[in-house]
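Troubleshooting: if your tokenizer reports a length mismatch, compare your output against this known-good record of 703 residues.
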Amino acid sequence: MGDKQSLRMPHLSTAHIFVAPMPGCDQKKNANRNHLRRLNNLGRILMTRQKLLVYSVAFLAACTPLICVPSISLACTTAVISGQVTADGRPLLWKNRDTSSTVHNEVVLLGTGKYRALAIVDAGDRKLVWMGVNAAGFCIENSLSRDLKETSPVESNQKKLGNGGLMRLALETCATVDDFRKLLMETDQTGRTTHANFGVIDAQGGAAMFETAPDHFTMFDANNPLDAPHGYIVRSNFATTAQALPANPTADQVAEIYAGERYLRACRLIDSAPQGATDDKLTLEFVLRHMARDMADDSGQAYPGTVNAPVGLLPATIPTERTISRSTTVSAAVFHGVLAGEAPELTTMWTMLGDPKFSIAVPCWVAVDAVADELTDPHGGELGEIAVTLRDWSLSPDRDGIRTRGLPGIWKDVWPVEDALVQETEQARQRWLRDGFTSSEATSLHHSAAARAMAVMERELIEAKEHALTLPTLIRVAIYDHSPDTDPARGPQNLAQFLTPEHGFECQRLRPEDVRAVQLGSFEVLVMPGGSGSKQAEMLQTSGCAAIRDFVDAGGGYVGICAGSYLASAQYSWSLNLINARVWDRAHWARGTGTVTVGLSPLGGQFFEPGEGQLAEPIAVYYGQGPLLVPGEHPELPRYEVLATYESEVATKGAPVGAMVGTHAIIRGQFGSGRVICFSPHPEAPSGPQALITRGVTWAAGK
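Known-good structure output:
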């Protein structure tokens, strides 16, 4: 938990603790009534907080056991980015907040200090702040660093400031980075219960990170090349001072330190800026999209299908113990600062309530008349509560990972809306720079943006509900893929384009190690695509091959395409012997590629129903050196059934003419309690007769 601390009251005056009524109260009440009326039209899905929570429980009951969230003590990832390295010269401040203490966050206005402030807090608790901005353009966030607590023990004292209390006091009293430094110097003398890395920026171009123990601190200036040679400072959940490390430690230096991998991943993202950068400089869009939503494996490689590796098939489940965007991420914020001399009110807090993977960023300004109803509620901002529901529905059974089946659809719908909000907000900021900032226009834009964000999130909630209700009818399909993420194979990607929920399938990627770990049990069908059958066997190893045989023997379905049919045959020493087929003219397996025609057998005509739309004989299909199948002589396997035969051929590279015509192109058979269907050609290719595959997968599933 990146910012968990004792709930004891910080040492604040009564004025600090009391929160005055927010401006625009009547307007806010009317907005609430209109909002509830709109939600009622959506089937009363979100009319009250209690009903929203009921949906959350319903999703969980349908999809995963109700297990308490394990105690995750440390997790936040943050960065202070100076204007030296941003595209517009303005500083950026970012935090992904991770905690197991509460998943419910809200945005609130604090109006009792020297400076009015806008902050993200635990829902219903305004005493402690976890990130925020004030009217002077001063922004602050933190990441917990318990090694600072261990190196500077102090006696427990309820009157001493903790992490959240210090950030609230800073927002109420500080205008600059230097003001915060002075505040830390003052409280060094009285003592604190802080043990955190505090990132701050201000309206004068200041940007710094403070590693802050209970009675001392160390400042790292993001504008100082000695502290930040690349113009930024990243922290996760360790302090360089506590670990006797330099300001910017290397991979070797943090290899054994908790959260070191997240620190390194964030640094690499900023350094490489693979997408969203302008002239090799960082943009707000890059931090919002590519840092807050990053998911990478233990080696720092983004998982295929995610925002930083969009090409490739998403794994079925992504473990998030070491990722930046985790299963315990409850909110995030990116602060877009201003240049010295510009109106500090332009400082924008881009807020993501809930897990950023399932949420949307909304622009917020401290000068708004009132926080949009979608973002503020003592039970949690409604927009964030939808993200909580979507996240809970997607948690793995152990709740340490994210099941990815719903993510592509969410991203496809949500991110274009977020992009539009970013573009429109930037246009408004440019207009305010030219004509002057007005709080009324900022309020209007903030409320409009929140309403648009809420509309798309409500749509996602409804779609997720419908998907959850129909989930048992979807055929769960595992697509094998051992290709590297840097050069993904086309076959699995082609299959994922049409084996979709809309067509009745839930399609997920399995790596060789997943098969060896006996993860096939949660699927109905395994599809082994093209490539090399011998390579597939090699990568699967003996245990993986045995796991596939056991899966099919116990009732699972097997669909082989080209190489996958070689693997299923009873021909080679590495074959799985799932179907009683041998390969004709194996000496000329590399006979060339091209389009061929296949004819359906009487059984195949009934099976594929060519008169129903997508299929018409003769069927033209791409051939990529798949096996020419003929009956085998395996004594323990039944004879297979022929569904299609080659009517034309490819005969190059020395292959004899006439060898291919008449051999079997599509066959099916039984293995134990399971079903096996093999395709020698590639119906899954773009513009190919893909209905052959969907029908084959459906049959293999026993449907």
